[in-house]
Design goal:
The protein is about 45% helix and about 15% strand. By secondary structure, it is α/β, with parallel strands linked by helices. Helix 12 (about 250-255) packs antiparallel against helix 15 (about 295-310) and helix 15 (about 295-310) crosses helix 16 (about 310-325). The chain starts with 8 loop residues before the first helix and ends with a strand.
Length: about 400
């Protein structure tokens, strides 16, 4: 390996940028120093259960941390939990989580393996599936693994403890999840495992049991759960506050431009490779009035779109955003959506759902009441607004980014 494996204070700061927990930093420095002396890369493990078909920027906080280690010459293992997905991660659950089917896991895993290489170097990334060793672990092996941990230790986990105290059921197989995740670290001989803050217990189980298998305990690093573009909840598709890796450049740039100024700095820290000192310098320039917040946010949008598309796509998305919102023009790619309207008419909320701008009538109604819906440029706040089948085509805008021309048609 190259001299990239040598460690400096600057590189350690780069690796720990944005982390909430580093258990323990002295051990991490020691492992990095030994790797540099021996010219042997560390094994960096990050696991993803394929619970949904597409990834969003929230997932890339972990991917980017993998990239940081990769940039310094270390071996990163992108671990797809096709076996643990059958168990169902109990993290944050107040009741037993239904496991995924084999078919769902297989379909989702296939998309994961392609999307991660938008950020990671495919030539220097090991993609593994934990069914390869967990699926062949015989009954005796599971018993020996279970013997490494006890029920009292499991009940230290907040989710389990609360359910136990409230008399809610805890299925035995849920105890197997953190053990299975821990055994992944044993099999891979992980030096470092990175996960979200909600995974701290699971990561520490791996750290706890590795010495029983003759291995040095892994260093545990956690990163925050990324707040969605609404600035309220963590990023997720169910909350409709996500930026998907499969979003178009225009969609991606527009969503980034919609975030609040304070949230922008969290995104800079967690979604770019900029050093903490450079981000702080930019923040000071904004605070002092030397740099407009919009310009800083545009730079963030360009950086993120470039990472997942290209610099040319980012420049085009920025130009389109300026044309649409600074010049108050309609998008150049405005599409038509034909909507079948019954003779009695249809609620506007139903139309919003029908064109895919909300997931339910209740969420569409909230958007109307919040003043987020415009028809031909006019804000609509009447939740009872209806669309006639004889209505002329109209431009509907929901929020800042979702715009479409609706063509009503009499329902046959």
């Amino acid at each position: 390996m190259s001299s990239r494996l040598a460690i400096s204070d600057e590189q350690l700061a780069y690796l720990t940028k944005g982390c909430v927990d580093v258990i323990r930093e002295a051990e991490l420095r020691s492992k990095l120093e030994q790797a540099g002396q021996k010219q042997t890369p560390l094994v960096i493990k990050v696991g993803f259960d394929p619970t949904a078909p597409d990834l969003h920027l929230g997932h890339t906080v972990l991917l980017r941390k993998m990239k940081h280690f990769q940039d310094l010459g270390h071996k990163v293992v992108f671990l797809i939990g096709d076996f643990t997905g059958l168990i169902g991660d109990p993290t944050g659950r107040s009741k037993t989580r239904p496991p995924l089917t084999v078919e769902q896991i297989s379909e989702n895993a296939e998309t994961y393996a392609t999307q991660v290489f938008k950020l990671l170097d495919p030539e220097r990334t090991v993609v593994e599936f934990n069914s390869r060793w967990l699926g062949t672990l015989a009954g005796e092996g599971w018993i020996r693994l279970a013997a490494r941990y006890n029920v009292a230790q499991m009940l230290e986990r907040r989710d389990f403890r609360h359910r136990y105290e409230k008399g809610r059921p805890i299925a035995i197989h849920e105890f197997l999840y953190p053990l299975a995740q821990a055994y992944d670290s044993v099999h891979l001989k992980a030096d470092v495992e990175v996960g979200g803050t909600d995974q701290l217990f699971n990561l520490n189980v791996g750290r706890d049991i590795m010495p029983a298998f003759g291995l040095a305990p892994q260093v545990v690093m956690t990163v925050p759960l990324l707040v969605g573009v609404d600035g309220i909840e963590k990023m997720s598709k169910s909350a409709e506050n996500y930026v998907g890796l499969t979003d178009t450049p225009d969609q991606m740039f527009g969503k980034i431009m919609s975030i609040s100024d304070p949230l922008m700095w969290d995104y800079y820290e967690l979604l770019t490779d900029l050093a903490v000192a450079d981000i702080e310098t930019m923040r000071q320039r904004v605070d002092q009035g030397d740099l407009h917040p919009k310009q800083a946010k545009q730079a963030l949008g360009r950086s993120i779109v470039t990472d997942f598309h290209s610099a040319r796509a980012a420049a085009g998305a920025e130009d389109e955003f300026e044309r649409r919102f600074s010049d108050r023009s309609l998008p150049s790619d405005l599409s038509d959506r034909v909507f079948d309207v019954p003779a009695a008419g249809a609620r506007l909320a139903t139309v919003i759902v029908g064109v895919g701008f909300a997931s339910s009538n209740s969420s569409a109604t909230r958007l109307i009441e919040q003043g987020s819906v415009r028809i031909d440029g006019e804000k609509i706040t009447d939740r009872g607004c209806r669309v006639s089948p004889e209505a002329s085509p109209f431009v509907m805008q929901v929020g800042k980014r979702k715009v479409v021309r609706v063509v009503p048609r009499s329902e046959s």
